[in-house]
Write a structure and sequence with these properties.
The protein is an alpha/beta fold and 404 residues long. The protein is built from 15 helices and 14 strands. The chain is globular.
Length: 404
């Protein structure tokens, strides 16, 4: 089966093409609607290509992606593509697993756009564009929230009047589920363990960041909640915050709901503490600098705040699961910052964690993974490069085989 995977964002469309879960190519259409837009492709046979071209909208982006895939020789024509898998961020309580896209699924994606206004609408643009450009092709929605539907009720409910859950379904949903699921299964495969018999804590640390407790292959708690704002300190998001803080600031500063929303989602986190950037790499660049003491001080503070919150969640989830067997770091910060990993792990020796500092400083191998725990560590620690597109392709094939 040849599966096209589409991950549509507000101004980007990431894509990958797989034959029986083996990657043929992948790439991105970026800066949609801007003057400097481009579409790119990467494959083992031809390397990387980047084409600067005007991209009007998501349909135009996917049209250009399809042209590029055919021109590259990955497929001879659209007829060879058997199915399309889409990342959809929010599926609410309705979808406990991936689903074949029909009118009911499309209506639900629209409904849950209220809870994920930055994500579900562009996800839907991708679906509708593929329907128009490749009519009749089977399409599957793979939801980030589905993996977390196994979280027990006492973990996902908030201690507010139950009527708000009953009326509006206000609860913990969790996100990054595709990534958490993928790296947990990869960790079990690499370690030759049964995923149903181990306790895994997965740390997806990127621009958005979340941590998940996975017991016997199922998500039982996760740091993001009703929205992707809860949990860890992120690049521009505040994460956990006393609910009284925004109310107090709104009162003192006379801020509107929209202004407060922008402050918490776009002006907080690393950006708020570092001051001049929201990029974790800029923290690392300024940690060792002798010049500009203010930048160095802010970088040190932001780094220590980030590390503290990651470490705190790992400790909490070890308690929730009565121990931990495997810890996995993934996504941009998780995969690339050896200093962050070292500092997070050095206070977890009471759990039986011992880090191999030399292994931690090395890059992941050609299989995009590395074991960075010492041989006598009771807890195995891994870096695994996440591959959400591969997981989506596998899920698409599973759902279609299930329907046949």
């Amino acid at each position: 089966m040849i599966t096209l995977v589409i991950n549509a964002g507000s101004s980007t469309v990431k894509y990958a093409l797989f034959r029986n879960n083996r990657q043929l190519c992948r790439g991105i259409a970026d800066r949609i609607g801007f003057s400097d837009s481009f579409v790119g492709i990467s494959s083992k046979e031809d390397g990387e290509k980047k084409l600067k071209t005007k991209i009007l909208n998501h349909e135009d982006a996917i049209s250009k992606i399809l042209e590029l895939i055919i021109d590259s020789g990955c497929v001879k024509g659209l007829r060879q593509i058997d199915a399309i898998g889409h990342r959809v961020v929010h599926g609410g309580e309705l979808f406990k697993e991936s689903a074949l896209i029909d009118n009911r699924v499309i209506s639900a994606i629209k409904k849950y756009a209220e809870l994920a206004p930055l994500h579900n609408p562009p996800n839907l643009y991708g679906i509708e564009a593929c329907m128009k450009l490749m009519p009749g092709k089977k399409q599957v929605a793979v939801f980030d929230t589905s993996f977390h539907q196994t979280i027990p009720k006492e973990h996902y409910l908030y201690p507010i009047p139950l009527k708000f859950y009953e009326r509006y379904k206000i609860r913990r949903y969790g996100f990054h589920g595709i990534s958490h699921n993928y790296v947990a299964e990869e960790a079990a495969r690499i370690l030759k363990k049964d995923i149903k018999k181990i306790r895994v804590i997965t740390c997806h640390l990127g621009g958005g960041a979340s941590i998940t407790a996975i017991k016997n292959g199922k998500s039982i708690d996760t740091s993001m909640g009703f929205t992707p704002l809860e949990g860890l300190m992120m690049c521009t998001r505040a994460g956990d915050l006393d609910a009284g803080v925004p109310l107090y600031i709104m009162s003192k500063e006379k801020l509107s709901l929209q202004h407060m929303d922008d402050l918490l989602n776009k002006e907080s986190g690393i950006k708020a503490i570092l001051g001049f950037s929201s990029d974790f790499r800029d923290i690392l660049k300024n940690l060792g600098k002798k010049a500009n003491n203010e930048k160095k001080a802010n970088a040190k503070l932001a780094f220590e705040m980030f590390v503290h919150r990651v470490r705190k969640y790992i400790g909490a989830y070890a308690a929730v699961m009565n121990g931990v067997d495997v810890i996995v770091f993934t996504a941009g910060i998780g995969e690339n910052s050896c200093l962050m990993r070292e500092k997070v792990l050095e206070n977890l020796e009471f759990l039986g964690v011992k880090i191999d500092k030399k292994a931690n400083r090395k890059k992941t191998n050609r299989k995009n993974c590395a074991i960075i725990s010492a041989k006598d560590s009771k807890v195995k620690v891994l870096i695994i490069k996440t591959d959400e597109e591969l997981k989506i392709a596998a899920e698409t094939e599973r759902i279609l085989n299930k329907k046949n």
